[in-house]
Every structure is written in C-alpha cells, then in structure tokens.
Amino acid sequence: MTNIFSFEVLSGVLRTMIALSTPFLFAALGETFSQLSGVVNLGVDGIMLLAGFFAFYAVLLTGNVWLGLLLAMFIGLLMGLIMSLVSVTLKAQQGISGIGLQIFGLGMSSLLFKVLVGTVKTVSGFAPIKIPLLGDIPFFGPILFRNNFLVYAAFLLVPVSWWILEKTTLGLKIKAVGQNPAAADSVGINVNRIRYFSVCLGAILAGVAGAALSISVANLFQDNLTAGQGFIAVALVYFGGWSPIGVLGGALLFSFATSAQLWLQVLGIQVPASLAVMLPYILTIIVLTISVNRGKQPAALNKQFFRGEN
Amino acid sequence: MKSNRIFVAFLLLAVVASTAFAVGDKEAGATGAAKPLRIAVVMPSATTDLAFSQSMWSALLKIQAEMGGPSKLELKYSENMFNVPDAASALRDYASQGFDIVIGHGSQYGSSIREIAPDFPTTVFAWGTDVNTFGLPNVYAYTAAAEQGGYVNGVLAALLTKTGKIGVTGPVEVGDAKTYIIGFVNGVTATDARITISKTWTGSFSDVALMTAAAKTHIASGAGALTGSSQSVVGSIGAAKEAGNVLWFGTQADQAPLASGLVVASQVYDWTGMIKDIIANQKSGKLGGDAYVLTLANGGLKIAYNPSYTIPAAVKAKAEAAIQAIKSGAIKAMP
Predict the structure, then answer these.
(1) Which of A3, A262, A263 would best serve as a mutation to test chain B binding (most B beta carbons within 10 A)?
(2) Which tens digit of pLDDT belongs to each residue from A238-278?
(3) pLDDT digits over B209-246, tens only?
(4) What ipTM was reported for this prediction?
(5) Are residues B139 and B153 in the same domain?
(6) Does residue B205 contact residue B173 with C-beta atoms inside 8 Å?
(7) What beta strand segments (E) does B89-192 contain?
(8) Structural domain total, chain B
(9) Domain containing B226 — which CATH number?
(10) Under an 8 A CB cutoff, do B20 and A120 touch?
(11) Domains of chain A, each with CATH number or no CATH
(12) Which of A18, A201, A265, B169 is the most buried (most CB within 10 A)?
C-alpha cells in the first residue's frame, strides 16, 4: 500500500484540491460581491448550469474555449440582469427570486441540452499551461504552476477582489450599500446602480464557474452538471465571513476534504465509503459552527431598498 | 401592481422551464385508428445518459420499430426523476391515463410501485433493478446479473492494463452498481492476482464533477484502466480521454461513442426480450408475478466490443472463454 504521507500522495491530494476549488472560487467570490451589496442570489447554481451549457455548446461547435468562456460570461450577465430587475428594481423577495432563477437555469439548460446536443459528448477544454521555471519547482511546481487558465484566473481573483473591496471607492460603495443603503443614498450613492453592478458581476463570475465545470473540470455537459455546487458556493460566502480571503479558505478546505476522501479510498484506507463521502460536509459544518461570522454580515443583506422609506 | 405581475410572470417562466427538466415528457405517439399498446416509463436520468436509462429507452424504441411504429406501440417517458415523490406522481398519472404497462426504471421506485399497483389492478407495472414483486399479481420485477459482464470486463482489463493498476469509480454501493464491481474485481483477480485494484464511491449517481475528480485521482495514482457504473461515469470516461492512455470498460450501455479509442468493451443491458415477454403475457391476461434477471446466458446481457479498439486475438479469446464459462456455470462471477 502506498504511504499516505508520501510526497506523491500529498501532491496528488493538493492538485485535486486546486482543480476542485476553481468553480467554487469563481461562484463564491461573485456571490460575495452580490451579498456585500445586500443581495442574496440563490440562483448561482442555475446560472452555472445555463452558462456551463452554453460554454460547452460553443466549444462543441467551434472548438474555441475562449468563445465558450465569453458566452458563459454573457449568459451570466443576462441572468444577473434578470435577478437585478426582479430583486432590485421590482423589490421582489430575494430568496424567492433566486430560487426562481435556479429552477429556470436547471430546466432551460436541460431542455437546450436535449434539443441541441441530445446525448453526452466530450470536448477538449482549457489545456494546462506550465509556467516557465516555476513549473519545474519540486513538489510545488506541479501543484501550483501546471494548471489551466481558469485555475490561475480563479486564484488571481482572490487578491483582486480583496483589493477592489478594501482599497477602492467602488468597494467602499458596495459595502456601504450593503450595510446601510439609506445612509449611502443620502451621500449621493446610487443604491440600485451599485446593486445592479454587484449582482451582475457575481452572476458573470457564476457563469465563469459554470464554464470551469463544463470546459475545464469535466469537459462535458450533462443534466444538472453542478449537482448543487452553486448552493455550496453560497454557503462558502457565509463560511468565509464575506471576505475573499475567507472564501478562499473555505473553498480550499471543502475541496481538500473532498480530495482527501477520494485519495483515502484510492489508497485502500479502511474507511467506510459512505463516511468518507460525508467528510467534506462534516468538516465544513464543524468549521462553520465554531467560526462566528454574524458580526460581519452586511446589515442590509436580503432587504429591499425603498428610497425615502428606509 | 405592475411589479407584481412581472414577478409572477418570471416565476411562471421558471416553473415552465423546470417542468422541461423534471418531466421531459416525450411522446413517441400514436395516430392510427386501432388502439395501440401504451407503455410509459419513469427514469431517474436522461434517456441519452449512455447508461441505465438509455438502455431501457433504446429497448423500447427497438420494440416499437419492430411492432410497426407508434401506431402499434405508443411510448411515453418521464426522465430525470431522481426525486422519488415526483416519480411516484408520474407513475400514478400514467396508470390513471390508462397506459397498459407502466415501468418504474429505478430501484428507488419499489415502494411507490408497491403502493400504486393495487389501485390499478388491470395495469401492468414493472420495476427494477430488484427481484421483489411484493406478491402483487400485476407487478413484474427485473434486474441484471451485472457481475457477469463485470467479470468479463475484469478479465479484459487485467490482460490489457499496462501499469498493473486498475481504478474503479462507483456511485453508491448498492444494486447493480455494486454487483458489477464485485464481478469486475473477481474477473481481474482470477486473471492476474498481482494487479492492484482501487475503488472509490462518490455517494452520488449524478455528480459528474466528483466522478471526474475520482477518475483523475485513480489516474494520478497510476491506474492504467478504469471502469465504473452509473450515469455519472461519463465524467470518468472524460478523464480517461483527457489522460489519453487510460483504457475504459463500460457497463449498462455501449459507451464507445464517448471515447472511441479508449473504450475496450461495454456490458450492454438489453431489456428487449424481457419487455417482449411482458407484452406477450399482458395480451394473454397475465399481468405480473414474475422476476426477470438479465444474464449472458439468456441474451439479456451482451458484451459489446468496441470496433475502434483492436483487442489482441489472444486477449479476446480469453474474454470469450470467460463468457462461455459463465454461461455454462463453470465460473460464478459472484460466488
């Protein structure tokens, strides 16, 4: 039996962790922007599905992964505009509109898949890019520097998101709108515009997350490809305390646990398979329970803004 | 008011779209003057899943063509019925609509069939994979001796893997997914006991992304051949294709179209004989009570070699010998 603590196994666990965390990072970072502006978008999973389908379909027809990615972002934007229209302009209850969006994405992606593709097919997704010199570093090279574009982009998005939220006026406005929209409005910030921007940005990133699944991780599309990953991404935002760094930690922890349980099984470690499958969820619940994030929650989260009434 | 109307319209749109996913009804309908035989089937995944659901839908379409088309045999299906209460509603609806034969194609539908069948005593119900007819006169049960094809695939995998390691990607350790893998492991070890076999269970029949990750984990640990069961194994096949040099052994349906150069062989479930028998019984007034088991011997299980993959003659001969031995009873795939 291979030694579980060998470099070979540890490297394998970490490589799988990096790959698995990519869709979570895009979706959860996007949802962080949305929630910090005060809008909970539970439609992330549906956006991932519809955008994931279109990314796959574009690559199937043209072989161009960049076109697939762009199409996924565009679909994300459209879904974000729908969510914004319903929950920001029309002031509908955010949870219900998000669920509506999720069901729409699930159904529409399934319908389009059946009509346009018909059966399961595979495509050639984003190919790995080895970063010169860094990719040759022993142990860390293969884990960190031999991934595809979307993996690099997902991890780069973490510091970029942090910088936008913590160091720019835009980030300040997003957080102000999420904390106290009336006060933000009184100093001239257009609350609806900021919320539209944040929700659409989140939806575009959810679209990229869908593309990461269909043209990077699995390189195919099937009904309900996400298997609920969009909802896990929403949970990761709470887990991460509405901070990009926290979201990164949550995504890595969940993916590490998933990767570790797969490796435990492959190595023949005598752990019941059903227990191994539960490991990521058990670990997440434990950490979620012991980490207290209530104080960091945007005060106006899940609340409609009525100008002059709040 | 305008806002509310738009919101309601949005929700309605979502519900319509969800119906397209959850039900996916399709009628291979009938317009002839004579009343056709009507069969409805409820399935957990899509009719195009290259696995369990497709095996049943393909058999029904084949029988429809043999009988003379939709004017003789009307078919209707509900796919993606992972949610058992939804499936139970669909089964009851089909029975209420007067379908002659209603099939619950999933082992999770047993309790629903048991509850619904007594309310429609003139309707034939069939369900699987299981052998329990609940003592009801209008219920058939069916299953596949998946371990048999699993054994043959195991023989092939043991002879063809170049790394001495084989990975197995399973969904949940139940039903034919479990027995297929038991047979596969027995086939490998009987052929070459030195080969290392690793198994993973994802805990889901539908999580393609996790199945992909499981397959990639096997490949990273040195597996030269992979197999697995359930509709989510398309992810495993995709991972094998991406690796480029990892062989795949399929089950339930012919999976060669997904990776023509890497799929060596597939165990194919052929339900046509069983369904024809149920139809013939229905016409003679026998509505249930039997349990069918697909085997290599009765032709319900077939090994489909991929014509795009050249199997060395000596290897194929050993696979054929295993098939004959299983048929004759000389080899027990799952002792």
Answers:
(1) A262
(2) 989 999 999 999 999 999 999 999 999 998 887 787 888 88
(3) 999 999 999 999 999 999 999 888 999 999 999 899 99
(4) 0.87
(5) no
(6) no
(7) 101-105, 124-128, 139-144, 165-170
(8) 2
(9) 3.40.50.2300
(10) no
(11) 7-127+146-296 (1.10.3470)
(12) B169
